[in-house]
Predict the structure.
Amino acid sequence: MTLKSDISMKQSGLHKQGSVSRRFILIPLFLCMLFSVGASAIPTANFTGTPLTGIAPLSVTFTDLSTGAGLTNWSWNFGDGNITNLTASANPVHIYLTAGLKSVNLTVTDGDGSNSTIRTGYINVLEPEPEPESHGFNTGLFRNSSGTWYLDTTKTGAVNRTLQFGKSGDTAVTGDWNNDGTTNVGVFRPASGTWYLETAKTGVVNKTFQFGKSGDIAVVGDWNNDGLTNAGVFRPASGTWYLDTTHTGTIFRTFQFGKSGDIPVVGDWDNDGLSNAGVFRPASGTWYLDTTHTGVVNRTFQFGKSGDIPVVGDWDNDGLSNAGVFRPASGTWYLDTTHTGTIFRTFQFGKSGDIPVVGDWDNDGLSNAGVFRPASGTWYLDTTHTGVVNKTFHFGTTGDSPVVGKWIENIIL
């Protein structure tokens, strides 16, 4: 019997008996077994990430859930231009620096092929919230080489205002020239004794007048308690002060107070709302304070020594300006709150070469210490009178003159 006749017979029997030959069942099973032996399934890429949303910079941990025997490569495309290829299973951590929806693609490979899984818009990176403008005193710089000012209102080193006002050789001065509650910039030009004042932080000259001469040291203060900061000069050659209250170069007061070599200081020594004159005599570390604009010594005390830099502030929020010194050799501050030369606070904050600055950094009514480090352009601020760094940031470069002020109006909530 031939195979053909045998098949025909069995097919005929199928209709007759309702049965199927075992040979017809075994042959397909054998063929299935034949094709399945030696065949391998391609790998399957799979992953999860956490967190899926957040503010930049956002750190996301990815977990590899891929399957497949003998995987040899994991290629992670994080959707922000960064691709990482790994030769072993891992749970990579990726930091997203820019905002937006990020599509993540994982491709896994083994000896039989590769497989990719892409999750579109999987990671949602949000824009960082802008730094709030910081009320109280903030930092600034006058770049003498170009006459450019840089103002930071957040104590982060971000340039919030920049303007060209002045030129090389000018002395930077700051004050509230128009009683609007904010500090503005100005320059004193020693070569001609000319003042230039600006009230809009745009570099436009709002006031200019001649007051002083070459060799004079510029000072500023509210000499008549009208809310305006006005100009003054201390003439070291004779120890003479000249004060102007009108921004016109008119002498309001003149008196002799100090001598050659003295460093002029200004403060409200008796809490009457008036800025008054004082001098620090480095040779002996002696302070002389005048509260009447007449050259009469109302307070004198020894506080500091040769080489110290005098600073003035309200260290205890009692409304009085008091004395302090910064000792560059050791970076030590000494503060006095009684006008007697008694040490109220002493702490180490800064080092040799630093420039001391004073301001109410946190708007709590207390003047606090800070230093500007010209070598690196770094600021360090302390709000506790303990020498602890509460804020530090890079802002400026070698040759810049540090300034402080209330560049924005304080908001009372």
Remarks:
- The first helix runs from residue 3 to 17.
- Confidence is low (pLDDT under 50) at residues 1-39.
